[in-house]
UniProtKB/TrEMBL annotation:
InterPro entries membership: 6-hairpin_glycosidase_sf, 6hp_glycosidase-like_sf, Glyco_hydro_9
Catalytic activity reported: Endohydrolysis of (1->4)-beta-D-glucosidic linkages in cellulose, lichenin and cereal beta-D-glucans
UniProt keyword annotations, A-Z: Carbohydrate metabolism, Cellulose degradation, Glycosidase, Hydrolase, Polysaccharide degradation
SUPFAM superfamilies on file: Six-hairpin glycosidases
Gene3D superfamilies (UniProt xref): 1.50.10.10
Family (UniProt): Belongs to the glycosyl hydrolase 9 (cellulase E) family.
Signal peptide: none
Entry keyword Transferase: no
E.C. number: 3.2.1.4
Protein name: cellulase
Entry-linked PANTHER family: ENDO-1,4-BETA-GLUCANASE (PTHR22298)
Superkingdom in the source lineage: Eukaryota
Species for this entry: Sphagnum jensenii
Amino acid sequence: MSTESANIDIGTPGNYDYGKVIHASLLFYEAQRSGKLPADNRIPWRGDSMLDDKGDNGEDLTGGYFDAGDLVKFGFPMAYTVTVVAWGVIDYEDAYVKAGELENVHKMIKWGTDYFLKAHTKERELYGQVGDGGPDHAYWGRPEDWPKDKKRPAYKITESAPGSDLAGETAAAMAAASMVFKKSDPTYSAKLLTHAKQLYAFANEKRARYSDSIKEASGYYRSMNGYEDELGWSAAWLLRATNDSHYKTEFEKHWKDFNLGDLKDKAYANELGKTRFFWDDKTLGLQVLMAKVTGEEVYKKATENFMHFLTEVAPKTPKGMIFYAEMWGPLRHASNAALLALQV
């Protein structure tokens, strides 16, 4: 963070200034930017980086966001991040306006979607990773100083090596972002929606886990929960963005075929059930989203079951925070649960 952001006073305990929290959160994303930085870059210790990122045929793959403290660009969690931030802007735009951060959050989303547009090189081709985890983790340096002789490979899904979860989540990100920019930039919004529809069709018609096609991602962001939730999630976002009944029909097929209303956890089986909304599992999010969009009882009931779990069953800290004990920490799950609870 910049010197300014490192010393932000967000208020006293119990009386937080959430405008400053939003400000600091957006600076965090800006610190993760890859590529040619804009003139209004607010992170003084960041510079241009990874300007040679290219696809197999020389396609420009600069831009996007680095992952965590790494220098790899993992498309799957990056797309989830953009989807969820866009969701917050769509439903709580007034909060961003009040905080004076609407323009900055638009820039944050567009930095991601501009990259996704580059990565979607053909109707049924999408680059989902740039860089390799092994060499990346062996490099202890700044992205600005990445050695010129260290090549960064790019990996994609194609018709013969598909990835429904990656394509579906990227479709969801573009559909949600199209709503964000619908008033301020209708041409860009329409472009995003066109790509979202193409990627959804690719995801639905050529079904597979992306980490089976991009094997280099499997050690970092392997799709443990499968692609079924991303098919439902992307159909739900396209329904919200277009109000086209086709996507409602599509969603209803996924809901039935994949049993998306069931709280039983397929991949992380434990006594807590399916209780986490995060980059690998969108089931709870799609339940809440469809309850909001359609108002139909079947989705409202699924959402009520989750809210009952949160309030009555979920483990909590002494101060009442939802607590999931796992190696990557509980705060992401608590904050994601809070976003869904706000939607109910």
